[in-house]
């Protein structure tokens, strides 16, 4: 009989054997605590046991496989994290492991550089002028090429510039393991060659030299060949340094100044139909070359195909007779040696005839000229007489000390030697012609260097194309007395204010300089008629000389605006003035107009200085002053001291005597001497 307290069984559940649902059976009359669970026996067959064992074995294998994949993916993730986060590698294709390369560089930087790797070249302000870009070259192993003709034909479809016959011939060289097919190919070409799938053809990482500014300073930079070896300009001179030192090579060139000089030189060339020209800007205190322009020029990226004439650097490679710019040297050597004084007069009234040679003046004054007038009016006759008084021995010694007998020392392999006559041929006529810049050929940079020494206080500095650190010591050699330099600066200023260089005047910058026009020498000797080299050598500001500016035109032609003249005062001096006006502000120099009267007074010197009482002088009717004993023995260390009377030099310059007539040449009129009433 069932207990009424027992719950009813679920509707669909089978009735329990003991008549109760979900309850253990117990004896009648016994308490619920005495209930005893009823045990049941379950029978498991052998197939069930085998199935369970197989499932257990599969489960173990899956666990082991999952563990292996977990370890594998963990290792891959760890390697990726190491390569991309912890120790990232530079994306550079090399033939050796990067770690080995780094170790090799630390041990021997000379031998561990990559093929074609070169340091960057910049201007003085850090602007890139030459950079290297990663690229690849295509090479092949001829031993692995099955059909050279077919291979070459397929490659030419991708690389049209290939010479088919030459490529086939190279691919047939089975005695070679390595041959170049093409250099510096583009990424697109590399991909196209890869798509061809040619066995035995592969790529080699290299670099391509790029010049982002094109024509700017092309001759200065030079270039590299297909193997990235420098063969001209800075690239050649500093080839080893550019290969072994990754730091940028900083040049002294200022790209803004370079551009200004180039633009003004191009304008002058076009105006006067010149075949070429050059321009130089140099710091007279340090020798740093801030600009060096040679025209015509070329795109530096196409240097390998540029014409030879375009690659010719007229500034350091061309040698020319300097013409009247050399009269600054003649006057300096005479003043510094005490051979002449500014109040001396020299005969320019008639031509000089020596044997079959005759020396004349261009638009001469036909009278005796004071030394300042010799420079202001660029008298060949006056300069010849001054040089004759100095003598050939002292003249040669002076020019040698001024660096005119050797290279300038600038870091350019094209730097040329001057063309000078041997001492045996340096006779009287040579002495006189060299006195006004003929009979000797030097580079424009020689003229700049020598003039810088005249203006900077008498110190000869070596021109350099490398930027110097501010305040760094400068190697210089004293070549003249400071007092001589002071006089010469005033004489150079006189050329611009009262002489043939008036068109170079720039208010507030006080330039001084000297014009120079020389006929070009023919290849077989003699001079070309109506083929001149016109140059203007200037320094500014003359009250505190800082920069030298040289401008030259090769074979300029006259125009109506120049009244038929193609001399330096007409065709080049204006361009020099424009350059000074443009680059002054670029170099941090503003025109000083406020102090203009005082500065002009300090720099002034009369065209016809008065002679101090009792002082010897050369002049019409007076015997030539004898040379002192020191003039016969030339020694740089024993130069006689030049004493300049206070009545002659600034700041209290004497005026000409009342009965002295003065003459000036007006550039606006056809080169005629206009007398000015006596003061």
Describe this structure as you would to a colleague.
- With 679 residues, the protein is an alpha+beta fold.
- The protein has three domains: 77-111, no CATH class; 121-251, Penicillin-binding protein 2a (Domain 2) (Alpha-Beta Complex), CATH 3.90.1310; 260-625, DD-peptidase/beta-lactamase superfamily (Beta-lactamase, 3-Layer(aba) Sandwich).
- 32% of the residues lie in helices and 17% in strands.
- The chain is built from 20 helices and 20 strands.
- The strands form seven sheets. Strands 1, 2, 3, 4 and 7 form a five-stranded mixed sheet that branches. Strands 9-8-18-17-16 form a five-stranded antiparallel sheet, sandwiched between helices.
- Helix 3 (148-158) crosses helix 4 (164-171), helix 9 (255-272) runs antiparallel to helix 19 and helix 11 runs antiparallel to helix 17.
- The termini are far apart.
Keywords:
five-stranded antiparallel sheet; Penicillin-binding protein 2a (Domain 2); disordered C terminus; elongated; Beta-lactamase; 3 domains; five-stranded mixed sheet; alpha+beta
Distance linking N and C termini: 164 Å
Number of structurally distinct domains: 3
β-strand number: 20
Classification by helices and strands: alpha+beta
Q: What level of helicity do the residues show?
A: 25-40%
Indicate the low-confidence ranges by residue numbers: 91-106, 108-116, 625-679
User: How much is the radius of gyration in Å?
Assistant: 44 Å
Q: Average pLDDT across residues? A: 83
Largest sheet: 5 strands, mixed
């Amino acid at each position: 009989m069932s207990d009424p307290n027992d719950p009813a069984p679920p509707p669909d559940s089978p009735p329990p054997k003991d008549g109760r649902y979900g309850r253990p059976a117990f004896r009648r009359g016994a308490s619920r605590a005495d209930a005893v669970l009823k045990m049941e026996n379950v029978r498991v067959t052998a197939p069930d046991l085998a199935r369970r064992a197989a499932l257990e074995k599969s489960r173990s294998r899956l666990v082991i496989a999952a563990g292996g994949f977990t370890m594998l993916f963990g290792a891959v993730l760890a390697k990726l994290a190491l390569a991309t986060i912890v120790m990232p590698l530079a994306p550079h294709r090399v033939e050796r492991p990067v770690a080995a390369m780094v170790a090799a560089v630390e041990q021997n930087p000379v031998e561990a550089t990559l093929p074609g790797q070169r340091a960057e070249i910049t201007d003085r302000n850090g602007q890139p002028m030459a950079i290297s870009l990663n690229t690849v070259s295509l090479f092949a192993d001829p031993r692995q090429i099955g059909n050279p003709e077919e291979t070459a034909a397929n490659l030419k479809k991708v690389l049209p510039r290939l010479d088919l016959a030459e490529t086939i011939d190279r691919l047939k060289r089975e005695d070679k393991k390595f041959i170049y097919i093409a250099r510096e190919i583009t990424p697109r070409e590399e991909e196209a060659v890869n798509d061809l799938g040619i066995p035995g053809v592969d790529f080699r990482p290299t670099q391509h030299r790029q010049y982002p500014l094109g024509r700017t300073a092309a001759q200065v930079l030079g270039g590299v060949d297909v193997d990235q070896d420098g063969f001209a300009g800075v690239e050649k001179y500093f080839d080893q340094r550019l290969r072994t030192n990754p730091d940028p090579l900083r040049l002294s060139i200022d790209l803004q100044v370079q551009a200004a000089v180039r633009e003004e030189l191009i304008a002058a060339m076009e105006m006067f139909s010149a075949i070429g020209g050059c321009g130089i800007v140099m710091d007279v205190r340090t020798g740093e070359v801030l600009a060096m322009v040679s025209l015509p020029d070329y795109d530096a990226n196409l240097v390998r195909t540029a014409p030879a004439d375009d690659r010719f650097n007229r500034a350091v490679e061309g040698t020319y007779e300097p013409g009247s710019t050399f009269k600054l040297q003649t006057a300096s050597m005479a003043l510094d040696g005490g051979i002449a004084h500014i109040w001396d007069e020299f005969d320019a009234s008639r031509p000089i005839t020596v044997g079959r040679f005759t020396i004349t003046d261009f638009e001469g004054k036909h009278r005796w000229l004071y030394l300042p007038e010799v420079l202001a009016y660029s008298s060949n006759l006056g300069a010849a007489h001054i040089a004759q008084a100095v003598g050939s021995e002292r003249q040669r010694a002076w020019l040698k000390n001024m660096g005119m007998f050797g290279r300038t020392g600038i870091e350019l392999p094209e730097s040329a030697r001057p063309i000078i006559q041997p001492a045996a041929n340096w006779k009287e006529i040579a002495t006189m012609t060299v006195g006004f810049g003929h009979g000797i050929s030097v580079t424009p940079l020689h003229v700049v260097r020598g003039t810088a020494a005249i203006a900077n206080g008498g110190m000869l500095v070596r021109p350099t194309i490398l930027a110097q650190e501010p305040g760094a010591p400068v190697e210089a050699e004293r070549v003249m007395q400071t007092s001589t330099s002071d006089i010469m600066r005033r004489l150079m200023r006189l050329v611009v204010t009262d002489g043939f260089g008036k068109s170079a005047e720039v208010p507030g910058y006080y330039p001084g300089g000297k014009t120079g026009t020389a006929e070009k020498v023919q290849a077989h000797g003699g001079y070309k008629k109506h083929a001149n080299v016109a140059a203007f050598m200037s320094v500014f500001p003359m009250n505190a000389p800082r920069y030298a500016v040289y401008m030259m035109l090769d074979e300029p032609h006259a125009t109506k605006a120049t009244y038929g003249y193609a001399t330096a005062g007409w065709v080049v001096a204006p361009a020099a003035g424009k350059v000074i006006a443009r680059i002054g502000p670029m170099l941090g120099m503003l025109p000083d107009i406020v102090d203009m009267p005082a500065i002009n007074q300090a720099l002034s010197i009369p065209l016809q200085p008065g002679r101090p009482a009792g002082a010897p002088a050369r002049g019409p009717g007076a015997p030539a002053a004898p040379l002192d004993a020191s003039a016969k023995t030339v020694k740089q260390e024993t130069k006689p001291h030049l004493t300049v009377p206070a009545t002659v030099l600034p700041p209290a310059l004497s005026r000409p005597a009342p009965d002295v007539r003065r003459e000036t040449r007006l550039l606006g009129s056809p080169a005629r001497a206009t007398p000015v009433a006596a003061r």
